[in-house]
Amino acid sequence: MAYALRTSLAAVASVIVLGSILQGCTGSAREQGAVGTSGVAADGITVGTLSGVVSVENNTGAPLVDLQVTINPVGGATAYTKAVSRLDTGERREIQLGEFRGRNGASFNRMFVVPRNVVVTAADLSGKKHEVTVRWE
Q1: Where are the beta strands (DSSP E) in the chain?
Q2: Would you give the distance in Å from CA 114 to the centre of its chain?
Q3: Helix (H, G, I), strand (E, B), or coil: what is residue 8?
Q4: What is the pLDDT of residue 14?
Q5: Cα-based torsion angle of the residue sequence 25, 73, 97, 43 in order, rounded to the nearest 10 degrees
Q6: Which domains, and CATH codes, for the chain?
Q7: What is this structure's pTM?
Q8: Residue 18: what pLDDT?
Q9: Among 6, 11, 55, 71, which is 20 to 30 Å from 88 by CA?
Q10: Measured between alpha carbons, how far is 83 from 99 in angstroms, rounded to an integer?
C-alpha cells in the first residue's frame, strides 16, 4: 500500500514539474523588434545583440545626437548605460557589453546580471526625440 502511494505521488509530482517547465517555455507577448534577431522600431532605430555586443543602427534619415543606450536587468536593480555622442544616418555602432556601466561605475557582466530589455533614447538635429525599447532574448 505504501509503495503504491509513493509511486502515485511521484507521478503526480512529475506531471506538475513538467507542466511548470513547459509553461515557462511557451511564447509570451513580444515587444517590437526582438533583440536576438534585431528589429527596426517605428522610430527607425535598429537594435540587436550578438555574442556580447549591443548594436545600434540609425535608419531615421537624420543624424542622432546624445544617444543613451540602457540595459535594464530583470528585477530592476541597476540599469547599465552607455552614452554615444553622435550616430550619423545609416551608421551602425557596436557596443561591447563591458562598456555599459551602472550608477556605481560597475561594468555590466552577464554572469551576475540577467538583462530584460534595451532602451535607446536619442534626439535628431532638429530636436525630435526618439525612443526604442527592445526585449532582450
Answers
A1: 39-40, 45-50, 53-58, 64-73, 80-87, 92-96, 115-124, 129-135
A2: 9
A3: helix
A4: 57
A5: 90
A6: 39-135 (2.60.40)
A7: 0.69
A8: 45
A9: 71
A10: 10
* Residue whose C-alpha cell reads 526604442 in the numeric block: 132
| Alpha helix stretches (DSSP H) within the chain | 2-25
CA distance 128 to 116: 27
The alpha carbons of the chain give a radius of gyration, in whole angstroms, of: 21
CA 20 to CA 25: how far, in whole Å?
9
**Rounded to an integer, what distance in angstroms lies between the CA atom of residue 40 and that of residue 35?**
10
Distances (CA, A) of 11 to 1, 7, 14, 15, 16: 16, 6, 5, 6, 9
What is the model's pLDDT at position 22?
Answer: 42
Chain centroid to CA 84: how far?
18
Residue numbers of the chain with a pLDDT score lower than 50: 12, 15, 17-19, 22, 24-37
Quote the CA–CA distance of 70 and 32 in Å, as a whole number: 17
Which DSSP symbol is given to 51?
T
Helix (H, G, I), strand (E, B) or coil at 7: helix
